[in-house]
Specification:
Blueprint (H helix, E strand, L loop, with lengths): L2 E7 L9 E10 L2 E12 L3 E2 L4 E2 L6 H25 L5 H8 L8 H14 L7 H22 L15
Helix pairs in contact: 1-2, 3-4
């Protein structure tokens, strides 16, 4: 699993005053996403090799510290996801950085339903029904792991279509 970060200037988003935004590109397993850092500078104030703002630019120390903090935060999120041991992708890193709350996973919801069903055995649910749902749960978990190489899918990732 190869994870990279790189800063880039978005020349196509130049403001009227000539300043351009700095974006961070996150790459994981040949998939990438770009996020705005919220920093705008003139193109000539950017050092592409050092991935930093030139020291002659007024405020470069503060901006470079901001860029370093963004890099550190993104790497921390990546390391946290690796340490959990679950499969993840570049979108999970992006959502972690943007602090977007993750929705419940399909298997997590299914497991909650099974636990509820188990607590109500004999009160509307039979053991056979619970057993059949348990088999479905295991097959769904196996399918998600084989098809998506993940341990669970977020409910928000599903796109429902009516035919």
């Amino acid at each position: 699993m190869r994870f990279y970060t790189k800063y880039l200037i978005r020349r196509n988003k130049t403001r009227k005053d000539g300043s351009t935004p700095i974006y961070i590109r996150l790459s994981l397993n040949q998939k990438r996403v770009e996020l705005s850092t919220g920093i705008f500078i003139n193109i000539e104030d950017w050092d592409e090799v050092k991935q930093a703002i030139n020291p002659q630019f007024y405020g470069s120390v503060v901006y470079n510290q901001q860029l370093q903090k963004i890099t550190t935060d993104v790497n921390d999120i990546y390391n946290r996801l690796v340490s959990v041991g679950k499969a993840f992708d570049i979108i999970d890193i992006k959502n972690g950085y943007l602090d977007i709350g993750s929705s419940k996973g399909v298997l997590e919801v299914f497991e909650y339903y099974l636990n509820t069903m188990e607590s109500k055995l004999g009160k509307g649910y039979s053991y056979g029904t619970l057993r059949h749902y348990g088999v479905t749960f295991r097959k769904l978990a196996e399918f998600i792991k084989d098809k998506y190489s993940r341990y669970d899918l977020q409910v928000s990732e599903f796109i429902f279509t009516i035919k």
